Amino acid sequence: MSATQQILAQAADNNAGYAAIGYGLSAIGAGIGVGLIWSAVVNGTARQPEARGQLMGIGWATFVLAELVALIGLVVFFIASA
Fold first, then answer.
1. pLDDT digits over 27-65, tens only?
2. What are the domain boundaries of the chain?
3. HEC string of the chain?
4. Buried (b) or exposed (e) across 56-82, using 16+ Cβ within 10 A?
């Protein structure tokens, strides 16, 4: 095994650990984002019940965007750990 192959093998081992940390952070971020989104929807609905439909639409759209962050983190995790 050449020196270059050893360095690449060692880097691959380190990338798996860093990838797991990165995925964990993206999942935590998405969880916090989803919590903030739905708390704002509930708060807005409590203040103005007639705006519930519009708030729910905005809530679902932003929920999808927040979950997309976790999905991107999962994809990057599998790419980096391969």
1. 899 999 999 999 999 999 999 999 999 999 999 999 999
2. 3-81
3. CCHHHHHHHHHHHHHHHHHHHHHHHHHHHHHHHHHHHHHHHHHHHHHCHHHHHHHHHHHHHHHHHHHHHHHHHHHHHHHHHC
4. eeebeebbeebeeebeebeeebeebee
Give the Å distances, CA to CA, from 40 to 22, 59, 78. 27, 8, 33
18-28 pLDDT tens trace? 777 878 888 89
What number of CA atoms fall less than 13 Å from residue 51's CA on the CB side?
12
CB atoms < 10 A from the CB of 30, how many?
20
Contact 30, 67 (CB under 8 A): yes
Fold of the domain built from segment(s) 3-81: F1FO ATP Synthase (1.20.20)
